[in-house]
Amino acid sequence: MFLEAILLTVITASTPLLMAALGELVVERSGVLNLGVEGMMVMGASCGFVAAILTGSTILGALAGVVAGAALAAIFALMTLGFAANQVASGLALTILGLGLSGLIGADFVGTQRDPAPKLAVAGLTDLPFIGPVLFGEDGFVYASLALLLGVSWFLWRTRTGLMLRAIGDNPVSAHALGHKVLRVRLLAILFGGGCAGLAGAYLSLAYTPFWVRGMTAGRGWIALALVVFSSWVPWRLALGAYLFGAVTILQLHVQGFGLGIPSQLMSSLPYLATILVLVAISRARGRGATPGSLGTPFVPDH
Amino acid sequence: MPIELERRSEPSRAMMLASPAIAVVLTIAAAAALLAAVGVNPLRGLAVYFIEPLGTSWSLQELAVKASPLVMIAVGLAVCFRANTWNIGAEGQYLAGAMLGGWFALAYHATGAWWVLPGMLLLGALGGVLYALLPAVLRVLFGASEILTSLMLVYVAQFALDYLVRGPWRDPHGFNFPQTVTFEPAATMPLLLSGGRLHVGVLLALLAVAVAVVFLGTTLRGFELRVVGMAPRAGRFAGFDDRRDILLAFAVSGALAGLAGIIEVAGPIGQLLPNLSPGYGFAAIIVAFLGRLNPLGILVAGFVLALSYLGGEQAQIALRVPLDLTIVLQGVLLFCVLACDTLILYRVRLLRLRHRTVPGVP
Amino acid sequence: MAEAAPGGRRRVLEARGIVKRFGDLVANDHIDLAVEEGAIHALLGENGAGKSTLVKVLYGALQPDDGEIFWQGAKVEIASPAVARALGIGMVFQHFSLFDALTVAENVALGLPTREPLRAIAARIREISAAFGLPLDPARYVHDLSVGERQRIEIVRCLLQDPKLIIMDEPTSVLTPQEADQLFETLERLAGEGRAILYITHRLEEVRRLCERATVLRQGRVVAGVSARAETAASLARLMVGSDVKAIERQAARAGAPLLELRRLSLPPDRVLGMALADVSLIVRAGEIVAIAGVAGNGQGELFTALSGERASPAEAVLIDGRPAGQLGITDRRRQGAAFVPEERLGHGAVPRLTLSENVLLSRHGSGGLTRLGFLLRQRAQRLSAEICAAFDVRKSGRDPEAASLSGGNLQKFVVGREILARPRLLVVNQPSWGVDVGAAVTIRQALVDLAAQGAAVLVISQDLDEILEIADRIAVISHGRLSEALPALSLSLERIGLLMGGAHPDRVPEAVDAD
């Protein structure tokens, strides 16, 4: 029972990371570095919560979160694709904007409560011991994250469009010379990444906790970025990383509860310290081979 | 794409000067729109935000006091960014400097000695240097992204400060509030004009600007950092060691951020609290870009952002506008700066419709 | 109806009055061009004459500002490469449009307009590569392939679309002489099938061997349309340049003491896809020019960084003026009297966004009296920059412009001049005249010859065999990170060098009877 409960909480802690990171993985595979995941995520949390309160529907709230994330991503796309602006600075601007805007939008709704997103209940299956609640008793967001995992993997490696996206990330100059629409593909990838981050944020305010607090993403967007690096831009490794991370987060919460005398702030720092360790380990092990060739470099086509 | 970029044969000198100004004007327009959106009369809102803080001597001094840490941190960031290393964790280095310098103040509290303040400042800078070298070393040794590692360390620093201020360093006579004892006069920044708000920290910020101008413009080291940032292979061709340069850039940036931290603590704040910064480390990034990574430009840009902070505080009191509006405006400002900077290297054209192809008929 | 040209063959492509501008530069100035079926038509011109621009217009990668294009007699507008391909125009670029991280089959698939499954494409690749003598394995990753093999991907990709006109942009610049011969056979076979080939080059012997007609461009305009076989290499050169090309003046070398010595230098690759150096030995003496020939990608860059000190070697493996230098950095090597010119001028030899005087500091800050107590002496740097520009005829706009604003030839003259005016005793140059107009190339090569005549040791790494044969006293060949013995230039034939470039062992290569 205890193990089952832990597993359930690990899944809930990992799901937002997985969703946001999958979106960013697609973006980076197309050669764009969007550091604004934190901003898009917190916008998703804020707008998703407000929409859910106003309409009374979790699904509409989730949708609002997706749209909010994508809308913010559209600004980033305008800057980096339209104006060939520096991608690092644009991503930071996006984060700042998202944090401030989400605070404004959610200002009147701090302290409001609503019912958390309902969990699935399949007659018979959900009641199975242990695997029942874990596999068949999750809320819609968790299943969406798994669908996203499968969908992204299939898209990138089994479709021609996915091949083209990977090619654009490897060498946009060659892709453009062959007649592929580099900017258009990157735009769609960026919007997709924004939608995923927005959905992840909506998950936080609609399912993970049923309320909105300023800055409630607490750096998860940045951790998602680190997870993309950790995964070497491969989805199944990303899922592995996300669930490991969720486990670390849950672990430190439980240890705090044990009353061992370890300062709570030290435990709270664990996920962030773990991120640093992960980045060091993966950078040492891998060298430069797996990074999409054009990551972070703006592309301006000749006309 | 509706926008077409045509590269200029040479960067436009006119736009280099005009771009930040245009960005500020666009941001003010956005501010008007946002104020209207939250239900405030735009003209009244703009006046409260940008004009009233310039009205009294007191608020002008406050402006300088708020601008100092921004300028100091941003000068360090400019050195880093020009070397193409991205120190996003200046906020953490600011806190690390505040903590190390603050420790010194607490350790020698009530001694009243002349060396307490200089010791604090030195340790503040040192704290920033050590904290900044962490991501730099990880980048040089392992190739780990300094953007993500320096940022993660910000969260760690915030937690560390929270722990110290609630735990071992808490003022026993402070009614259980999370704060240290108030620093004694020997551990406080002396004022420049008695009865005013200007303190020596303002002069230190100006000194930082002057040193940076000389360093970046006239020294071989400054040239080295710029070359390594623009073209790493050319840097190696010149015999410059880019690993050493990364460490140097981060150390300089960390020192200035840490110094800014202890100056704020020893000056306007007077003690250690869990919340020592309204995000100066991040706002300084915007100051650095608005100032086009040029120390003199940063001096002006620092005042612009300090104005947004001051105006935001006034707007919250007078017009019930949330502080988040200031953050939104800062984000908008950075976007406008980046967009306007494009005009320096490119001409922007709106795309004309192309003719459709007529396939050949044999 | 397509016009019939004299001789009765149809014109498959005709361009009239093509104009293309880039800002103030008129890259194509009212150009007329006609290509017949089954013909191999040369497009000649030196670097910067407008060949690449014209061809990009014909292929739809650029839109002309004025002019008309006729395909098989009917007027067309080629709005994009996809349209060009649909018409039946194929292009093999000089700079390949390939993706290192993907396989051959995937690369080809991305260049095709259809969405055939990869397996079908792989089968077709095997078919075509067998039919035309272009061996390729569809499953290999591009990053593992040599330059010649990569070119085959481009050609196969082009042929899969059954083109009636194939445009080839400087194809032999990356091939050994033997690989070039193989390519010519393939081209002749294709022309025999009735396909037209537009062959862009600046290599005159190839034109005379391969092509019937030649159109010569100079500074954006057509200066002649001639029968290639009726002209000589010299007459074609005169048409390309507009005046007689100066020959290099040189005297026989009187070699002195060894100033550079490599002793069995071996180094592992410095990055994931790099080339290892194996057992490289060489001596360069004062007063002589030694050239290292080789096709791109055989370790030239790695050898250069080991020589320059940008990369450390075992101390005794590199000797400058008799002293171990392997562990010395580049600034120390410069203090020993060495100077270096890398292959890439923008980004390696010079920083594009810095001014010329600042770029002088790049290699002269350690030994040129340009700094004092850590401070830059900008005025002295500016004076030195002016000296270099005057001595090497560097054309620029303004007194101290950014490096990126100079043309390729002028920037190369500046970079080479910067090193030569330091009066080095040893100069190592990688690709001295790559992508440089003929006038600048002559200036640079003459400067190298003069430097050697004054007693310096000069080492030239080059892909251009014509250049090597013009200036070198001794020639070695680099292949797969190994260096052959450096033999006197007069004893080597083009064929022998070609075999060595292809990796043949020197002892198994028959010596030429005539050195011609």
Question: Could you name the key traits of this structure?
Answer:
heterotrimer, A: 303 residues, mainly alpha, ABC transporter involved in vitamin B12 uptake, BtuC, 12 helices, 72% helix, globular, B: 362 residues, 13 helices, 3% strand
Low-confidence stretches of chain B: 354-362
Encode the helix/strand succession of chain B as letters.
EHHHHHHHHHHHHHE
- Secondary-structure-based class of chain B equals mainly alpha
Sheet with the most strands, sense and barrel status of chain C:
7 strands, mixed
How is the largest sheet of chain B built, in terms of strand order?
1-2
Total beta-strand segments of chain B: 2
Summed over residues and divided by their number, the pLDDT of chain B gives a mean of 89
Q: End-to-end span of chain C in angstroms?
A: 49 Å
Report the oligomer: heterotrimer
Helix content of chain C: 25-40%
Number of helices of chain B: 13
Average pLDDT metric of chain C: 87
Instruction: Give the amount of beta strand of chain B, in percent.
Output: under 5%
Rg value of chain C? 24 Å
Shape of chain C: globular
Tell me what portion of residues of chain C adopts beta-strand conformation: 15-25%
Helix content range of the residues of chain B, please?
Answer: 55-70%
Low-confidence stretches of chain C: 1-5, 511-516
- What is the rounded Rg of chain B? 23 Å
Helix-strand blueprint:
The complex is a heterotrimer of chains A (303), B (362) and C (516).
Chain A: H1 2-29, H2 37-55, H3 58-82, H4 87-106, H5 131-136, H6 140-158, H7 160-170, H8 172-177, H9 182-208, H10 220-230, H11 235-258, H12 264-286
Chain B: E1 3-7, H1 13-37, H2 42-51, H3 57-82, H4 90-107, H5 116-142, H6 146-166, H7 200-218, H8 220-230, H9 232-237, H10 242-269, H11 280-290, H12 295-319, H13 324-345, E2 346-350
Antiparallel strand pairs in B: 1-2
Helix pairs in contact in B: 1-2, 1-13, 2-12, 3-7, 3-8, 3-10, 3-11, 3-12, 4-5, 4-6, 4-10, 4-11, 5-6, 5-10, 7-8, 7-12, 11-12, 11-13, 12-13
Chain C: E1 11-22, E2 25-36, E3 40-44, H1 51-59, E4 66-71, E5 74-76, H2 81-87, E6 89-92, H3 104-110, H4 118-131, H5 147-159, E7 165-169, H6 177-192, E8 196-201, H7 204-210, E9 213-218, E10 221-227, H8 233-241, E11 258-267, E12 277-285, E13 289-293, H9 300-308, E14 318-320, E15 323-324, H10 330-335, E16 338-341, H11 356-364, E17 371-372, E18 375-376, H12 378-391, H13 408-420, E19 426-430, H14 438-453, E20 457-462, H15 465-471, E21 474-479, E22 482-483, E23 487-488, H16 494-501
Parallel strand pairs in C: 3-8, 3-9, 6-7, 7-8, 13-20, 13-21, 16-19, 19-20
Antiparallel strand pairs in C: 1-2, 1-4, 4-5, 9-10, 11-12, 11-14, 14-15, 17-18, 21-22, 21-23
Helix pairs in contact in C: 3-4, 3-5, 11-12, 11-13, 12-13, 13-14
